[in-house]
Description:
With 339 residues, this protein is of the alpha/beta class. 48% of the residues lie in helices and 19% in strands. It has helices at residues 5-8, 12-23, 27-31, 55-70, 88-97, 118-121, 129-136, 139-152, 176-179, 190-199, 211-216, 227-232, 258-262, 266-300, 311-317, 319-323, 327-338; strands at residues 35-36, 42-47, 75-80, 102-105, 154-169, 183-186, 202-205, 222-225, 241-257, 304-306. Helix 4 (55-70) runs antiparallel to helix 14. The longest helix is centred in the last third of the chain and has 35 residues, at 266-300.
Amino acid sequence: MMLSRRHALAGATALGAAALTATGCSRRDATAGGGSDGGGAQKLVLGHAGSDTDPRQAGSEQLKKLIEERTDGRLTVEIHGNSTLGSWEQMIEGLQLGTTHLVIESILSLEAYSELASVETAPFLYENDEQFFGVWDGELGTEIKAALTEATGFELLGNMFRGARNLTANQEVASLDALQGLTIRTPSTQTMVETWQTLGARAEAMAWDEVYSALEQRVIDGQENPLDVATFNALYEVQSHVMMTQHMYANYHFLMWGDTLAGFSEEDQAIIREAADEVGKTYTETTVTKLEEYRTTLEGEGMTFVELTDRDAWVEKVQPIIDGLPEQVATWVDQIKGG
Length: 339
């Protein structure tokens, strides 16, 4: 039996402010490579928005184990899940302030810092998993991440494959006509909001920790995310259908503020990077292996899976968004689609 969303998030809001206070350190401490844990070791505060059963928690625990073992305890990792350090926007701000040192998020979270991040949020770029891996495990993916670091100051460590994002709702949405007027929650990124508005829905940017109750109370009609999110956040309790829109593919990364990472010794920087890469490989293998399991679980909990009957119409509808991308992103998009 899957964990109820209510139970998964119990106490999260109350702990948030306390966690920020307890784990905070000055920007100076962060730039020097993290805060002290009181015993001489340097403490890295890691935040993510997933529940205790979410793959992000498992990835965090693996990273903690690798870093602490390989530094002989010089570095420790303190994990805060369930958005207890705030929304992903707040956690990423915390990377600059030094209240967090690592945040698990995808490139879409950097769109507020650079328009180059729209390379991830641009809709319908990939046909399948293999095409996505060809980009992000290759030279183009390395180029994109380096450009984003240069533009934003954030390092993107490891590639943790999330799978394709799909629409969920309380009705079948097999066609573009059926989508018209529905209120769909999106992350607070311009390209994703514009995508759903262009498709004819009412896009509602909303913090993730508010989504379950908004769906339960029918304040919104649906949301879009990879299947693991629907599974581990018990969205089957408040949604009836999964539409296989596969409108966007993404990785999670361990985000770090570049100055913070540069403050470590070269040896410890290498350990952090290598550990993140190892976690990324494990995370990706697990996602690929479990995608069918997620679907089986959701179907077992009563959700109906729906294929789009007019996918070409969805792709054509959002072409103005692709046409309006920044020049560098448009170049990457051409490479992605031609790769």
